[in-house]
Each structure stands twice: as C-alpha cells, then as structure tokens.
Amino acid sequence: MLAIRLNRIGRKAHAMYRVAVQESNRHPSSGRVVAYIGSYDPHAKTVSLDKEATEKYLANGAQPTPRVVKLLNEAKITLPKWVKDVNVSKKRAIRNPEKLRKNQPKEEVVEEAPVAEATTTEEVTETPAE
User: Mapping DSSP to helix (H, G, I), strand (E, B) and coil, where does residue 23 land?
Assistant: First the structure.
C-alpha cells in the first residue's frame, strides 16, 4: 500500500518537508520512496506540488496523512471520496473544566463599616493656630 507523507529535510530549527509517496506496509516510517511529488515550507507557508502526479497516485489508492490532506485542499487538488477530510477546528475539549480558576465560585468580599473619619478631621480644624 502506498502512503503520501511528509519527509523532513532542512537544518536544525528550520524544517522543510518533501511530499513523498512511500510504501507503508514494509517500513511504516521510512519505507521505500516511490516518488517525490512536492515540497512544503512551513516558515513561508508555501506548498509546491506536481498536480498530475498527485492525482495519479491518489487515483491508484495512495493514502494521504491528515496534514497532507490539508495541504492538498489548500492547493485545490481534487481528492477521491474515500479520503477523510481533516477537522480544521483548533478547539479542543477541556478536560476537567470545573477545576479552572474562572469556573470556581467567587469569594464574597466582606465590606468593613466606614470609620468615623469626620470626627478626626473636625478635631484637627478646631485646634487654634498660634
């Protein structure tokens, strides 16, 4: 079975990827590369794909990874009906939302009685100035 995957190339901390068609039965992560059909630069967000070769391998049953499906959709390459679409929402379910600080019951603020400040100011003003 063929798989369409991203192969990492480039230097440390500056990754670039090749879009490769590989055999996935023998060696799942590093199977024999059948063909390179494009490249992807995540820093510049550029994708270059050979559209005809990509459609040929998809028609022959090559399985794209979810990230490759997203790249193919951005490149406007028609996908077969059996390819699962990627969930593009980045919202994830929050585990244990009741533990979040914003969901805790608010503490009641105890208001103190106002201090009789008026009497202290009156005493200060009544003292004669000599």
Answer: strand
